[in-house]
Amino acid sequence: MTMIGDRSRDGGRTEDRLVAAIEPLRHLALAHAVYALLDTGLADTLADAPGLSLDDLAARHSFAPDRLLGYLHYLRNEGYVVEQDGGWSLGAPGAEAAVFRPWYQLLVGGYAQTFAALGPTLAADAGWAGRNGGEVGAGACGMSMFDAVPLADRILETVTGPARDTPVTVIDCGCGDGRFLAELARRRPGLRGVGLEPDPAGVALARATAAQPDVRDRMRIQQGGALDAPSVEPPPEGPVVYLAAFVLQEVLEQDGEDAVVELLATVTADRDDVWWLVLEVDHQPDDPRLREGLGRAFYNPYYLIHAITEQRLMDVAAWSALFDRAGLECVVDADPDPDIDSTGLLPGMLLRRARSAASTQSPTADGSRQA
């Protein structure tokens, strides 16, 4: 009998090469599938009511059973759901993805269209790639619960001292869905906050957050961008902190360095108790940290996004030069808890109007650098 081709299931060298070459396609499909698992609420249903049948799941979510079955089969083969005796449950990888869902919300929900536009956007005459601003803001705020919020809370102690009921006003110059500001308010009973957000979808989400009973008397949201911050009238007494969490990068690209300098200088010009708390990603694309761990898993694609969208990353030295131009000095420079991010690529900086031509900094007990 003549055999056409080798149908052995053991594979061969060419098949191994093919599998390796198309592995990114698997990750493309998987990232979208996991995002849908989280975004549709299906992951929550499978976690809360394990063992539901296909028909029950379809009915709860108004899904087409035949399409849902194909989707569940895919997720089962990737390990994200488990099928047993006709019932479906969330697998261990699915449960872990649910813990870290904001990263999927940012990179898939917010930036999938950005990645899809990568090729055309490289053209010399092309505009910037688009993004889903609402999902970007919501994802960024969710991620911040793990790293940036605890970091900002720790830095605020320099302003308020250890007492958490010390009055302080925080003006969030790009509040997204408001969770960042709300979480700071929950951690600090003396904090009152104003959130600025330019994206209409983000404003709606932020106002819903600000309406929650435990913060509704201490938060208000208004539509506007970071450059509108000087129009927000702070209380005449007590410390005021302008929070710029991953916002100045947008002002930098869209309005230029002079606009950043003017913004920073304007709000600190007349009072010594006004501060800037700036969080920005340190742009280090040539650093070996980008080839392993969290550097490779998150910061490498994050850097790519910012090369083709209307945002501009800079390294810490360049940011420091802008702060100097604005007449500011850095009082605290600190990193997130290394348990969640050990890269050192997410500095948090507390700035005030310079009180001397130069300031010296020395390490503090928590690893930050304080004047």
TrEMBL record:
Keywords tagged on the record: Methyltransferase, Transferase
Annotated Methyltransferase domain residues: 170-231
Organism: Amycolatopsis sulphurea
InterPro entries for the chain: Methyltransf_25, SAM-dependent_MTases_sf, WH-like_DNA-bd_sf, WH_DNA-bd_sf
GO terms classed as biological process: methylation
GO MF, one example: methyltransferase activity
Protein name: 2-ketoarginine methyltransferase
